[in-house]
Amino acid sequence: MPETLDLIRCPMVGWFPHGFVRPNVVWQWYNSSAQFQLKTQQMTDIVKTERAPGTAQPAVLPIKAQLAEAPVGLLKFAKLAGRNMLEVIPIETTTQTYLKGPLNIHYICDPEIITELLVGEGRRFPKAQFTKDILGSAVGNSMMLSEGEKWKAQRRRYSPLFAARNLPLLSQHFAETGKEIAASLREGSGLVDVAQMAPAATLTNISRVIFSGNEEVSAEQIRVGLRNYFEYISELSLFDVMGLPSWLPRKKWFKSKAPVTDMRALARQVIESRRAESRPIPLDFLDLMIAALEEDFEDIETTVDNLLTFVVAGHETSANALAWGAYLLALHPDVQNAVRQEITDISPDEPITFDDIQKMPLLRAHTKETLRLYPSAAFFARDAGADITIKGIKFAKGDALFYPVYSLHRNEVLWEDPDAYKPERFMGAPLPRGQYIPFGDGPRVCIGAQYAEAEMMVLMASILRGVAFDIGDAPIPRPVLTFTMRAGGPIMLRTRPV
Ligand code: HEM
What gap in Å lies between CA 214 and CA 210, rounded to an integer? Predict the structure, then answer.
């Protein structure tokens, strides 16, 4: 793939003269990281040219994930789950709304049951133990994993940070990144791997809003720290997936924990030096975080846990949606043109603002439809905290409640043409609660949902205004689910200035 590699490198030259963690740098380390090698290995050479049902004109259906077509035994489950969780989710979850799995597992795609469990009587059920085992070493006691009063206090403390009133400020940072990405893509138009471009953009955003303007720690330290940290946490332990007792040795135990301890030390240093600076007006997310802590005490280790949680939860999730969104628009040039028209009508050349994106219903519908077809959190789980019966189904205390969001969003009982890209689904009457849950629901709904929507929309609007995406000849990889649901290889699209 010589052309590909050249073109991946090409737009990096001369990016971001004043940037901190610059997309070109991040892009390069993504290229060389274990994550990228994993992607390349897992890349499958299938672009399924399926016809959308009921359409006179042949239309290509977007690439689908490979779900399990036959029952998966426990050992195979553990082996596959560590590589790609989607391969252990039974395909019947896309044709039925409830499925009893092996052991004490329930696969739930019924919107009413989901709502009763996440929002109603089951809303206090704890996060699944295996989720805690997998994520615990990286994000410790953060809001993501804690329960009860501990969780409540953190959620209360940090909720105001993500409030709508802060989004205009954060969107300024997103627009800055979007402008730079667009300029770079215009310069080096040709084949681009959007699965690499997108995390470069969101990591730049998170670096801008959290680590910006920090003099104590160098850009290089943060860059290397984050790279090692992501490599460490993206390795799922099979034992964790199998739910084996925590005293059984994990492969990770034999590896140095340095990536985590180093990153924690850096985060601590950044928080402390910023605290000492005591800026009069908050200029970014870290300032907002520190301002919240002034009013409500939290020990520094928990703050570090939460800071790293925001970096981890916030960067890859939005990036995946941005990359798949570019692919869907390339597959549907008519929608791409209409979205671009909407963007240029509202904001022909100024940086895109938070206010602008409120006036872009088609872009919003595209973003939602992208998260329907490719939900970054394609699966999450709870342990039943008590016996409960809903719609005649008994869930016993301790049962594993699986929410296969990918299957729910493509369930043929619930959706018309479930595998077809139709943003207009999100331009009419609201959907029944529980049918569309890319950000979860109930008290543990994603705290960063509005942040993520603003980020994805501002980035996409900034890029589309100057660049068009076309489908090239390269095969499109299927989605895989490890830490988040991402492309199993490069998504090579053609770009050209518009
Ligand atoms: C497209 C982007 C995103 C998606 C699809 C997404 C999805 C989700 C989902 C499904 C949950 C609930 C999981 C469960 O119930 O077990 C969740 C929780 C969470 N998300 Fe996100 N997320 C995104 C972006 C973000 C961002 C940008 C941040 C922060 C900067 C963030 C921070 C969190 C946190 C802290 C939680 C835990 C909340 C709690 O338990 O109280 N997420 N996310």
Answer: 9
Residue 50, token pair as written in the block: 């399926």
Q: How far apart are CA 16 and CA 25, in angstroms?
A: 10
CA R_g for the chain:
22
Interval 31-79: pLDDT, tens: 333 333 333 333 333 333 343 444 444 468 999 999 999 877 777 776 6
pLDDT tens digits, residue range 402-420?
A: 999 999 999 999 999 999 9
| Closest-CA residue to 456 (of 159, 79, 260, 181) | 181
Bridge pairing between strands 492-497 and 467-471: antiparallel
**Whose CA is closest to atom 11 on ligand 1?**
446
> Which sequence spans correspond to the domains of the chain?
2-497
The minimum-distance atom of ligand 1 relative to the CA of 375 is 5
User: Is the distance from CB of 458 to CB of 175 less than 8 angstroms?
Assistant: yes
E strand residue ranges, 80-169: 98-100, 105-108
Q: Which residues contact 432 (CB under 8 A, 6 or more apart)?
A: 111
- At the topology level, CATH places domain 2-497 in Cytochrome p450 (1.10.630)
Coil, strand or helix at 413: coil
Distance 190 CA to ligand 1 centre (A): 34
Tell me how far the alpha carbon of residue 439 lies from the centroid of ligand 1, in angstroms.
6
* CA dist., res. 167 & res. 362, Å (int): 20
Query: Of 380, 5, 422, 33, nearest to 193 (Cα)?
Result: 5
pLDDT band at residue 137, thresholds of 50, 70 and 90?
low
The rounded distance, in Å, linking the Cα atoms of 434 and 29 is 38
C-alpha of residue 128 to centroid of ligand 1, in Å: 15
Helix or strand holding residue 424 (H, E): none
- Residue pair 182/197 in contact by the 8 Å Cβ criterion: no
Residue 29 · residue 227 · CB < 8 Å: yes
